[in-house]
Amino acid sequence: MKLQHATWPEVEAYLQHSKGIVIPIGSTEQHGPTGLIGTDAICPEAIAEGLSEQGILIGPTLSIGMAQHHLAFPGTITLKPSTLMAVIKDVITSLKGHGFRQFMFLNGHGGNIHTTETAFAEIWAEHSLDRQASELSMKLVNWFQGPKVRALINELYGEADGWHATPSEIALTWHAYPDQIRDVPVEPEQAPFGEIRDAFHYREQFADGRIGSKPQLATLDHGRQFYEAGVADALAAWASLTQSD
Fold this sequence. Notes:
Number of domains: 1
Strand content: 5-15%
CATH class: Alpha Beta
Distance between the termini: 22 Å
Radius of gyration: 18 Å
Oligomer: single chain
Largest sheet: 3 strands, parallel
Mean pLDDT: 96
Order of helices and strands: HEHHEHEHHHH
Low-confidence stretches: none
CATH topology: Rossmann fold
CATH architecture: 3-Layer(aba) Sandwich
Structural class: mainly alpha
């Protein structure tokens, strides 16, 4: 069930048996010569499709994240950390007013992690300072860190998965959009590893946008496997969130 495809009476009926919602969150940023700019939003959105089939309500994807370090590559869009925090807080506050109490943000971008967790901390701090007990449960789930997904990455790619524009995430986007497969030669085959600072240092260090990855290892079948592993991991996280209350 998707929030965008529901009517308000259907959401009201859903709240009679569940107070939980999954919100995919990602980014709009470069992913090397072969990866789609929407990769980090497409991946959690694809996994959320599997959760929707289990009767879990899925909110609209927050597809622009904290990606300032990619701005030297055309097409990247970023929010400041403070802006993203405000968006997350407003989304939670809006839905809280309707009766939602359990929020699982299904994330596809490492750059969102600290900002999202800080937004949660801000909400809890506001309740504490107002001397009001919070009924909210908020959880950040990074699809690429789930145990089944990590095991599959190690089995298929090992270190060649790298840190950015990885074959694992690119394979998952291919599963979601098989008509968007890119076959572009890259040099070197596996990108180097290294640290980055701002956007211009990133472009200087990693000219094609990859970090440590060998995306040509991705296949359509791998994408199916990552989808299945990602859904299994996300369902386990959802159960942990909703059954603990």
